[in-house]
Amino acid sequence: MAAPAPVIRSKPLIVRHLPYFVAAAILVALAAGMQFDGYVLNILMQATTFSIAVFGLSVVLGLCGQINLAQAAFFGFGAYAVGLGTADLHMSYWLCLLAGCLAALVAGAFLGMSTLRLGGHYLAMVTISFQQIVTLVMINAIWLTHGPDGVSNIGRPALFSTSQGYLAFCVAVLAIVGYIVWHLPDTKLGRAMRAVRDNELAAGVNGIDVFRTKIYAFGICAVLGGLAGGLFAGGFAYISPDQFSFADSIVFLTMSLLGGVASPIGSAIGTGLLILIPEWLRFLKSVPGLYLAIYGLFVILIIRFMPDGIWGFVANIFERWRAKTQAPAAVKPLLLKPAMVGGDIVLEVRGLSKHFGGLKAVDGVDIAVRRGGVHALIGPNGSGKTTTLNVLSGLYKATSGSIMLDGTDITNMPPHQRTAAGLGRTFQNIRLFRSMTALENVEIGAERRGNTMVGQGGDAALTERAMEALTFVGLGHRANELITSFSYGHQRLIEIARALAGNPTLLLLDEPAAGLNSTEKLELHELLKRIAAQGLTILIIDHDMTLVSEAAQHITVLNFGRRIADGESMAVLRHPDVVSAYLGSE
Amino acid sequence: MDLVLQLLFTGIGIGAVYALVALGFVLIFRATNVVNFAQGEFSMVAAYLMVVFAVDLGWPYWLSFLIALGGMALLGVIFNLGVYYPLRHRSFLPVIIATIGASILLANSVLAIYGPQPQVLQGWFETPGIQLGPVYLDSQYLLIIAVTIALVIFNYWFFEHTLLGKKLQATSQDKEMASLLGISVSTMIMITFIYSAVLGGLAGILVAPVLFVSIQMGSTIALKAFAATIIGGFGDVAGAIIGGLALGVIETFGAAYISVPYKDGFAFLVLIAFLVFRPQGIFGERVAEKA
To answer: What SS3 state is found at A456?
Structure first.
């Protein structure tokens, strides 16, 4: 296999990231070696530990688009684990820290599993409720938590028993966590999180397990909260319930938003500012509520005027000023090698029905799509075409009937598993991941589980495959541009490339010609021919009769949710029932 | 048995308050697809307005009441213009965060002005209540229940039998189509915010004599009301009311028979149970957003 075309990765990872580690080492050395007075030390300790908790928010909120209003509660889990463990039970600090992270993880995973299937406002409310419960327990379960008195005499590891030594340790943890969070967006999991944030439906049909991705994000956030809390407890040796209240969750949220929710650098900036500013404006704290009121106002203003935060604002300017990354070099032509497990029929739909209450949108439909052909599903508006497609790709659950894809029964699978089984699809109303480049979009398609064309699925192979797919649809030279800079017709092509990159067994195209002008339609027709020439089976829905009659060998016609005709193209289009369905009967 | 009846009465009374706030949630959600996390603060602010006028200034109760509701209408306008309207074309996450910010701002501004000490507001009636057989009917609870019933009827009449109500419904179902039919969508959304702020305020004023007037009352009520909407079925008016009443009863019994300090936790447990086992709620509203 030839070496993949380099995109941005020119030097080995270690060399490129060396400056980061050198800077981190210097910071750790400074933290250990400089003489701080107690006040400065406290502020640094707070900033360091809070930053780690805010990193968690940058993962869950910035990367995955899910909200968490209980970060202070997770922070409290870690703090109380270390506090109670070392002070009351005299256990090893390390064990307690680990226990705190685990407790936060378990709580976070449980909350996530109960809520993340639902819309975002559920998550917001449930995390607020959870936060309130945790506070209630901290205050009232005196036998366990010492209640409002809090826990004192919290221990530290022997290795870092001095305040400065402990601070250096915390800074080192911060550097490591920061590194991981910084590079998370470029990993497979990170891309999945961004895809979920940008468009959940499209993420699902591109093979991403949306629910699991959200739980990972939420779990990571909770663990970082727990870790930060554990470090915090060791640093200050005393904790009490009022440090882990809802107000503190809001402080974490504000820090994250102010700095820029999408990046750990932003998190650190936001945290630093919001720890320092109240110190400078101490008089604000003399009136209870005033500084939190100002935080609330800040939240509204940031969301309104600076949605990307301080760092996002700076990074945007930097991005504009920096030259555009040029597109990667030429690549090999795209190869489509659809899997061939089953027999002559790739997709066999039997007695498929989808009822919405009393409405029978799809009612007992049979479709058999032959391998290697272009099969069209047509019908007047409201005939149930798109509903059929949504049932096929798993966005709707079938009321009855069965769907076999290349010998596998996919009737009851969620969308991402159908994709793994070999289904690729595009949407009538384009669903791309809008904050990503064309290349990143197509890479997510290439990551399809079961894609045999990317070897082990390493980054280089994925990039190469994605470039091939983009070049195939004629947009390889613009690979590194953001989706928003493409025309409607080109976005359609990128969506097709995204599906092709995954090397599907069956490609579902939902009205690909809708909204295209006549030149673009001709290009689309050519593209379909080139795809079909490689033996990939296509099931297409469209209104454009010229396209359908020229491209498809086989047509199934739906009307009022029922199949009214099925067979070879020309014969079907002349069928009297079809003519009367489209033109009305006399 | 007597205790059970007594608790049932109290539970329904407190549940009626949750139902009123939940109604405000649902109305805004249906009109804007946004959950307003400051809905509970509307109740809190209205209760403090009552304290200012009826207690501190000693004005007549009815006059203070009208002024407080007027203040809430104004707050609804400001809230819409300042928080929701500038973000109306953004995705739902920024809007949610902005309403949370507004909630923090409102609660802590009141804290900064009034301090943390809870305030006392007496009830509407001089008579504390009536004894009916074994059950003592507190007059404030009776008032709460009566007002809730009246408002539910009014709400039904307003949305189903007036032109304005139909326009509001049209807006909540399809904003673009509504505007093509000549309905001013921004006016309709403004009216929704005013109406739900007044509803929330009313709930706050009614419940204030039963609880204390405190900074936390807003978030506590909002949490319960939100749980009520989920229990009833999200976005469903009848569901919100049933859910609110059910939650009030569960919580009152929980506090009496299980634990008082954890009273506020029961709503959360019921909420989690519903999310796990029946996320669509009692009335089966569809919860997932689809293609």
So the answer is: coil
Q: How many domains does chain B have?
A: 1
Structural domain includes residue B289: no
Supply φ then ψ for residue A371, to 5 degrees. -60, 135
B4 lies within 8 A of chain A by CB: no
Give a yes or no: residue A185 inside a domain: yes
Greatest alpha-carbon pair distance for chain A in Å reads 95
Altogether, the residues listed in chain B come to a count of 291
Residue B109: list chain A partners with CB under 8 A: 289, 293
Q: Which residues of chain A have a CB within 8 Å of the CB of B94? A: 303, 307
Structural domain contains residue A579: no
Q: What is the ipTM of this complex?
A: 0.83
At residue A3, the pLDDT reads 38
Task: Establish how many alpha carbons lie within 13 A of residue A253's alpha carbon, considering only the half-sphere containing its beta carbon.
Answer: 35
Domain enclosing residue A190, as ranges: 16-245
CB of A124 within 8 Å of any CB in chain B? yes
- For B276, the closest chain A residue by CA position comes to A114
Q: How far apart are CA B207 and CA B48, in angstroms?
A: 12
In this predicted structure, the answer to whether residue A139 has a pLDDT above a threshold of 60 is yes
Query: What is the per-residue pLDDT across A67-124, written as a single tens digit (0 to 9) for each?
Result: 899 999 999 999 999 999 999 999 999 999 999 999 999 999 988 888 887 767 788 8
Q: Which DSSP helix (H) or strand (E) runs through A536?
A: none
DSSP A156: -
CB contact under 8 A, B97 and A67: yes
Whether residue A357 lies within 8 A of chain B, CB to CB, comes out as no
Instruction: Please indicate, yes or no, if residue B285 is contained in any of the structural domains.
Output: no
Whether B105 sits inside 8 A of A67 (CB atoms) is: no
**B283 assigned to some structural domain:** no
- Residue A320's pLDDT is 67
Question: Is there a contact between B102 and A69 if contact means CB atoms under 8 Å apart?
Answer: no
The answer to whether B82 contacts chain A (CB < 8 Å) is yes
Torsion of CA B139, B142, B144, B149, to 10 degrees: -160
Q: Which residues pair with A360 in a beta bridge?
A: A355
Tokens of A546: 């010229």
Nearest CA-CA distance, residue A387 and chain B, Å? 10
Residue A516: which pLDDT band, with cuts at 50, 70 and 90? confident
A455 has pLDDT over 50: yes
Environment class of residue A322 by beta-carbon count within 10 Å: exposed (0-12), middle (13-18) or buried (19+)?
exposed
Looking at residue A323, the DSSP 8-state letter turns out to be: P
Domain CATH number, residue B191:
1.10.3470
- Contact residues, chain B, for A287 at CB < 8 Å: 112
Confirm whether B221 is domain-assigned.
yes
Chain B residues whose CB is inside 8 A of the A132 CB are 219, 223, 264-265, 268
Kindly state whether residue A213 falls inside one of the protein's structural domains. Answer: yes
- For residue A125, the chain B residues in CB contact (below 8 A) are 35, 37, 223, 226-227, 230, 271
Question: Which of chain B's residues have a Cβ under 8 Å away from the Cβ of A395?
Answer: 290-291
In this prediction, what percent of chain A has a pLDDT beyond 70? 94
In terms of residue numbers, what domain contains B88? 2-277
Nearest partner of A289 among B57, B84, B117, judged by Cα:
B117
Testing the interface with A: which of B26, B100, B117, B274 to mutate, by most A Cβ within 10 A? Answer: B100
Report chain A residues whose CB lies below 8 A from the CB of B111: 288-289, 292-293
Nearest CB partner across the interface for A300, out of B98, B261, B276: B98
Residue A104 in contact with residue A74, Cβ under 8 Å?
yes
The total domain count for chain A is: 1
B56 or B284, greater pLDDT: B56
| pLDDT one-digit tens code per residue, B152-204 | 888 888 888 888 888 888 887 777 788 888 888 888 889 989 988 998 899 89
Question: Collapsing DSSP states into helix, strand and coil, what is residue A405?
Answer: strand
pTM above 0.90, yes or no: no
On whether any CB of chain A is under 8 Å from the CB of B238, the answer is no
